Amino acid sequence: MSVALPTRFGINIDPTVGDLTLPFARAAIADRTGLDLIALQDHPYNRRMLETWTLLSMLAARTSRVHLLTNVANTPLRPPAMLAKQTATLDLLSGGRFELGIGAGAYWAGIAAYGVDERTAGESYRAFKEALTIIRGMLEHVNGSFSYDGAYYRVRGARPGPGPDHAVPIWTGALGPRMLRLSGRMADGVIVSYNYVPPSRLAALNDAIDEGAAQAGRSPSAIRRGYNLMGAIVPSSAGIKAESGLVGPPERWVDALLTLHHDSRMDTFIFWPVAGDEERQIAVFAEEVVPAVRAALDGSPQPVKDQTAWPKR
To answer: What is the per-residue pLDDT across 203-259, written as a single tens digit (0 to 9) for each?
Structure first.
């Protein structure tokens, strides 16, 4: 089955505290080079990480064209009605550049430490479904009021406005078949990570999404398939641990992205550097890998230079 949606590319920006200029430098590369997305993970309980929404807002103010994505927002720690309000506001202030990724939460020790009772897998699914229903409802009723009475969340005649600048896409960080089917029924995209869902598991992922889409009478091709690609773009993999993800020179990354697109229907790729000179790798991804993949998908492949070493900037 061919992918009907345009292929998109982005980078993940690590919110870990360190040099506070780095997130802005990396966002500037994405904005300048024509990447589609910058994404940030959301782990508020991690003492080394900045708060994601605040940092995204700052990055939105420092960029002009690249879209911003939560990768993914922790719904147990973010009440859905307020998350919808924040979504609309950030999208409005950024000129229609925000995309909302949400997840059910995974690290329950950290979540519970922030005051939320731990949930079973079934409870997490039901709470996430309620949160997704409320967020979508709030974003779709910006000129009226919205109510919802669930087991985990309640909204009583909320007035959601002001509305977003555009119809904000809602992504889900989903892994299990039940969550994937829900995403196929209700979400605009699904985003998973290479380290948790290797290419060998993508066929099953797509089947579950397609099943959910069919249940809702939706076209499977309308739902984006996003992939967090952890790894390193380096001339040699020497000294880099195998578990770091995809490791190799630009031409290997080009081949991998094209294969994932053609064989596994992935249409959105988020580069997540994990080792080496990360800023340099982001530039190589944006300036060498992405143009080569786009050219190949357009039918005019352009070779990537086989370099043994890259000059320092």
So the answer is: 999 999 999 999 999 999 999 999 999 999 999 766 777 677 999 999 999 999 999
User: Can you give the pTM of this predicted structure?
Assistant: 0.94
Tell me the C-alpha distance between 36 and 45, whole Å: 28
Cβ pair 145, 155 in contact under 8 A: no
- Interaxial angle between packed helices 121-140 and 80-93, expressed in degrees from 0 to 180 and rounded to the nearest 10: 40
User: How do residues 42-68 score in pLDDT, each as one tens digit?
Assistant: 999 999 999 999 999 999 999 999 999
Would residue 78 count as lying in a domain? yes
How do beta strands 146-149 and 154-158 pair?
antiparallel
Structural domain count of the chain: 1
CB-CB contact of 213 with 222 (8 Å): yes
SS3 content of the chain, % helix, strand, coil (to 5): 45, 20, 40
Q: Cα dist. 161→45, 55, 91, 168, 224 in Å? A: 30, 23, 12, 14, 27
Query: Is 90 a domain residue?
Result: yes
| pLDDT of res. 310 | 38
Structural contact between residues 308 and 235, judged by C-beta atoms closer than 8 angstroms: yes
Those residues whose C-beta lies under 8 Å from the C-beta of residue 89, and which sit 6 or more positions away, are 162
Q: CA 288 to CA 302: how far, in whole Å?
A: 10
Closest CA to 38 of 18, 65, 20: 65
pLDDT digits (tens, 9 = 90+) for 102-130: 999 999 999 999 999 999 999 999 999 99
Structural domain including 57 reads 8-297
Phi, then psi, of 231 in degrees rounded to 5: 155, -165
Residue 165: Cβ-neighbour burial (10 angstroms; 0-12, 13-18, 19+): middle
